[in-house]
Amino acid sequence: MKRLVLLLMVVAATLSFLPGVAQRPSKQQQQEMEEQLKKFNQFYFYLNAMYVDTLDNENLVERAIVDMLSDLDPHSAYITAEDMKAEEESMQGSFSGIGIEFDILNDTITVVNTIAGGPSAVLGVQPNDKIIEVDGVNAIGVSKTDVRKMLRGEKGSIVTVKIVRRGMLSPLNFKIVRDEIPITTVDAAYRVTPKTGYIKVNRFAHTTMEEFEKGMEQIGEVENLILDLRGNSGGLLNQAIEMSEYFLSKDNVIVSTEGRMIPTTEYYSERDGKFKGKVAVLTDAASASGSEIVAGALQDWDRGVIIGRTTFGKGLVQRQIDLFDGSAVRITIARYHTPSGRVIQRPFENGDASGYYADHLKRSYDQKYRDSVNMNAPQYKTLRLGRTVYGSGGISPDVEIAIDTTANYAYWNRLVTAGLVNEYVNKVLEEKRDRFARQYPDFDTFSKKFSVDEKMMDGLQKLGEKNNIKIEPTDDMDFTKKCMTIHLKALFAQKLWDTTEYYKIINQMDDEEFKAALELLETPGQYESVLSKTAQ
């Protein structure tokens, strides 16, 4: 509780001089805060002095902070010290480790892939190697969390691992010097056709625009771009602004913020965008925050066509306050507005988290519900063509691709969530990686010639049965086999090459939004027609 009291006192004392704060609490507000803090401190003293059992004060404090914030809005949050460390690594774009992708198979750490140029790859660690000891400690039966703790550490520090390799009579010992390992935010970047490129961004971290520009260089000069922001939950505001700027003209407003205690701020494009061609932005119900800023800016300036599904509607600005033990709180201080003035945040009632997420689910699956939301929503006009867009929260697509509610993923989902699909692919590669390398020396050969056969599907099914995951009478096995054929092939491609190859398979074989975007961009007049049809 002391931490909570200290937090409230620090917030009260520092709010008046935080950067960007336009208004400080009144004397009356400060007096009320001080009175409530005295009351809280008195309660905390007597609770600790008189309660029948010894109290876990750390747990009480964390629960109190979480409960207080949960009653305010859906996105003010408390982050533990451990979670903060992991998130900082994610946002920095790297961590210090040995440079492997691993999985736990039969209680053993199994190397799935090594990161090119990383410490392990340089020393000769190979896919399918099994790590049985780390720094002399038995590593059999450890959890994935424990593996990360054992293998990660300060850059330049040394970790010794003992490895069992197929075909070798004795274990191999490696002394590995930890180094910076990149965490990428661009999953894929490639040229789909001579005219059209594709790039997928999974979040906005410190390295995103650097990765994005490298991806665009790999694609080369194209007339059209598919920008895939599906599943992108946001991240750093400055990176979302820079990505918007990549497509917009100089002095175009990108996003604005307004709040009770901070001045209204508008963010403008400071230069003309590098890409001048047609843009199709793919969104879904998991696209949030930074990805909504990009999609909203391009839509409001009629600079791109949004394809897919309405985004999540997360448009609240949080300021992070770091606490003394490495934990932090994020407190909502403002709302995001698109260039036309739309509020990105979906409506919510304070403390009603279940209602907030139920609304999100209904927007995703219920067309009538979506229509009723937009019918009652304020209308805005885009800034170049005067198209009607709706301020119902989130960014509604110009071309909607509804979720196929008839698709039966139940059996496949049970296999995936149990980790069995990944385990099966790793097992096959453990036995056949060398053969695959001879049969498919490059991705193009693999894409054309490799197919998932009945034997592979039976193998996955038997692995499921061993783990008590069986086919139920309600499972649609025709659909499931189609799903297996596509996704197993994509996973093999990813583990043999990279995530770009994974998306090449998925996009080509099983992605309606991607196909709609490609058709829109490459059919003469269709892109312009979509924009003109929605203009009113």
Question: What this model shows, in words?
Answer:
The chain has 536 residues and is of the alpha+beta class. It has 19 helices and 21 strands. The chain has helices spanning 2-14, 27-50, 57-70, 81-92, 119-123, 144-151, 208-219, 237-245, 290-300, 353-365, 367-375, 410-417, 420-439, 443-449, 454-466, 477-496, 499-510, 512-522, 526-533, and strands spanning 77-79, 94-97, 100-105, 108-114, 130-134, 137-138, 158-164, 172-177, 179-182, 186-191, 196-201, 224-228, 253-258, 265-268, 278-283, 305-308, 316-322, 328-337, 379-381, 388-390, 399-400. The strands form 5 sheets. Strands 3, 4, 5, 6, 7 and 8 form a 6-stranded antiparallel beta sheet that branches. A 6-stranded mixed beta sheet has the order 10-11-12-15-16-21, with helices on both faces. A hairpin with a 6-residue loop joins strand 19 (379-381) and strand 20. Helix 1 runs antiparallel to helix 2 (27-50), helix 8 runs parallel beside helix 9 and helix 13 (420-439) crosses helix 16 (477-496). The protein is globular, with a radius of gyration of 26 Å.
Keywords summarizing the entry:
536 residues, alpha+beta, Pdz3 Domain, 2-enoyl-CoA Hydratase, Chain A, domain 1, 4 domains, six-stranded antiparallel sheet, six-stranded mixed sheet, 21 strands, globular
